[in-house]
Amino acid sequence: MPIKRLFIANRGEIALRVIRTARRMGITTVLGASEADANSLPARLADEVAIVGPAPSSQGYLVIDRVVGAALKAGCDAVHPGYGFLSENADFARALTAAGLTLVGPDVTTLEAMGDKLAARRIAVEAGLPVLPGGEAQTREDIHTRAAETGYPLLLKAVAGGGGKGMRRVDRAEDLDAALDMAQAEAQAAFGNAAVYVERFVARGRHVEVQLLGDGTSAIHLGTRDCSIQRRFQKLVEEAPAPAMPLDKRAAIEDAAVRLARHLGYRGAGTAEFLVDATDFSFYFLELNARIQVEHPVTEAITGVDLVEQQLLVASGKPLGLTQAMVRPNGHAIEVRINAEDPDADFRPAPGRVIRAAWPAGPGVRVDTHIAAGGEVPPFYDSLMGKLIVHGATREEAVARLERALASLTIEGMPTTAPLHRRIAADPRFVAGGVDTGFLAGYWGAPA
After folding, report:
1. Is 422 one of the annotated active-site residues of the chain?
2. Residue 88: its pLDDT value, please?
């Protein structure tokens, strides 16, 4: 059934992004906002606003009953969860189904399988995808045994994890117990599940992902993205397609991602993430994010496909209107995340009021932001203020446009990551393309 009234269970730039596409499609939007976001730009642009709770996300955005109840009270027939918050929560999907609401996203079975990283590994192996050495461990003794089998360096990763939470690199056996304590404590706090597993760490790895679309019967890819420039396993810079990679290797990763999507009977937009060895381009499946990604605009830039529109069409019960042959990537796109953080103070969050905001514009420049002069960056949520996306006929042109756009970007009122991005854009290693995830290690004092 066509979606008529859409409840948006998110905030910030992704909420605004969904509102604009839904409006173009003739869909009425109801924004589920916290009290802190009641006067935000997305709240002003949505057709209606429903308050889901006080500022802390644990009392509003993350409370399933509150969100579902607000959507029902507003008379909505579907819910778009954006990214983060409840976007990959199987219990949320189950509650929506029970309430007669449509989730704009995959079904409960897929969310359950992909939300458990160990289950996702097993399913990937079933689909014929390579995975890194490692695996689950139930007890501390098991973890020590698995670590000895896997070898060092290694990663401890939260089973229910994402966004770098509950993840620790361990270089020596004598550091394992302390790292395990920290990883489990962080995983418990972030996900309510302290379970972790072991995975080999690739010294010179690149983070390459594939954008997927599926309708439950067919699945296609929309090319690769490289997200290797990270701090604490969280992305700062993303580009499409993955640069400095042989075309046959890129195609092999894309084919592997589609195999997994078809194996799952995947519905909606999703992203298969891979670790690529920068020395020989061998690759390993990491996880499948069953939602829209923060970095989706770079894929939209090179393909011309509105991914939110595709999500809404599939959720309405329509088959994919795209075939693989219809997807013809054009040029190169780069996205940088502008966060209210101080890179010179260990990326400390810097919430506050924006005194001045002058975002760049021009040919090949796109800005996704909910922040303007006088706006607030609340202390309760992620520090993302906006995303600067550039597109060029070649990567060289995209890099040049990125430098010019960053030079004209002005935000006053708090420190941001913009100065760091200016330095990255001018760095010869970035300009050459193909940097690995260790790029920021020790770089201007920034941890990887």
Report:
1. no
2. 95
